[in-house]
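Incident log, structure service

09:12 report received: a user says their structure output differs between two submissions of the same chain.
09:20 pulled the input from the user's history:
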Amino acid sequence: MNFILVSRLGIPKNIEIVIKAFKVLKEDYLWIVGDGKDRKYFESIASNNVKFFGFVGEEELKELYKKAYACIMPHVYEPFGLVPYEIAKYGKPSIISELSGIGYLAKKYKFGLLFNPYDLNDLIEKIKMIKDKRIYKELSRNTKKLMNEINKIIEINKFIEIIEDELER
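09:34 re-ran on a clean worker, output below:
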């Protein structure tokens, strides 16, 4: 199965733990999208089942999201990463650091699994869990609930803007 990680490639982004997990999970593949000053280091520690794409355009990223099984977001200091939200548009769940801001939404809407970003075994366990068809289907179904909620909020905000514009006239 193909998992995707989209990030700036820097040590603080906690990407190394994901690369280490895929050294253990040799039957799965990790696609890393993005670039950064630590890319060469990450490439040097990666196994053959890890592919680096560098920066990609919006259309190519959409295609990768469609082909990926799930995304992994290992960040420790990320107030609100958008990748789990972006891949949710395609009905795909995520494995997210419990210290990430979007972890709150994942917990509330149950569209992803949370893991301790300092615990390699916990990440490996969550990757194995998400491969369970029953768990995957439930998480995938919940991505649609998340998108419905977000679309409602967007529509409400548009409505409020229209009313505010009318009141200013």
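09:41 both user submissions now match this output. Likely a transient worker issue. Closing.
09:42 reviewer note: The CA atoms of residues 33 and 166 lie 44 Å apart. Helices lie at 16-24, 39-45, 58-67, 83-88, 103-109, 120-130, 133-168.
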